[in-house]
Write a structure and sequence with these properties.
Shape: elongated
Distance between the termini: 53 Å
Helix content: 55-70%
Structural class: mainly alpha
Number of helices: 3
Length: 70
């Protein structure tokens, strides 16, 4: 059984606002999420370019066999 999607006017009415205000708020939320995503992406990419120092001076201190010991 398929349910009908409520119209934009119904959604706006349920929220006590006009259609234009609903649209404006929805677009603002979308833009805010996109900006947050871009900031997080930039931060993650910067971390890949300059990884933190883990005290190994770039050398592995383990062997594959040591990691897979059972």
């Amino acid at each position: 059984m398929r349910r009908e999607h409520p119209g934009v006017k119904v959604i706006a009415t349920r929220r006590g606002m006009s259609i234009s205000r609903l649209l404006a708020e929805t677009l603002l939320q979308l833009a805010t999420r996109d900006e947050a995503y871009e900031r997080a992406r930039s931060h993650a990419l910067a971390g890949l370019k300059a990884p933190p120092n883990l005290g190994t001076q770039g050398r592995r201190t383990w062997t594959r066999d040591e990691l897979h010991e059972r």
